[in-house]
Amino acid sequence: MRILLTNDDGVQAAGLLALHQAAAELGDCEIVAPATHQSGTSHSITIHGELTVERMHIDGTLHGWGVDGKPADCVKLALRHIMKDPPDLVLSGVNAGANVGINLLYSGTVGAATEAALNGLPAIALSVHQAIDEDFPLAVEPCRRVLEALLAAELAPGQLVNVNLPNLRNGAIRGVRVTRQSPSRIRESYDRLKGRDGLDAFKLGSEYWFEEHPDGTDEQAIRDGYISVTSLLIDRTDYARTQGLSELDWPGLS
Ligand code: MN
Q: Could you list which residues have their CB under 5 Å from ion ligand 1?
């Protein structure tokens, strides 16, 4: 099996090394990841700029391709130019920080996996809640076991799965929960800073929490110490409200 590994924390991130360690025995892994940190870039792509590609040393004998672009750029380039043969599976992560609830909309980790799914490939995004670099060695074995379980089930073409590990410094992982994406709003704030030339500047601040914790959600699972596994859709059509819209008295525009 050929596996493409990518992320949004950058090709040198500790989480990507952990992902390689988790996936190395599952198939032939190729790393194509952003050359620099691209968290929060969602599914953005580079339209006007050039995408420089560089073979980069990662760790010991491990090398990967660093792309001067976004996570979704990396997947596109990997599929169309960098990999000799297309992968059978795309893995994105392991991200430093959970990607649960509405954070999926901001996540470059999920953005890369989504791009793979758009191309008809099974794709899995993996993240660890509140992770620091020292946590990632602890993530290798749980990630490997979750990947083995998912692959044993034979993921469908274009299937998109989001995996989140709980904080790994809070004791043993309690198990796996299959969950739904939390719909909760996030309470957040910006800290006011002194910007350049005396201008006001703001930085996304330390206040940050989910306002609700509905049962059965990804966010609640990692809060309870479980690994969360969520199957995601790309189609954002609101089917329940489509009929109502179609029945409106629309103006004739012929
Ligand atoms: Mn990230």
A: 8-9, 39, 95
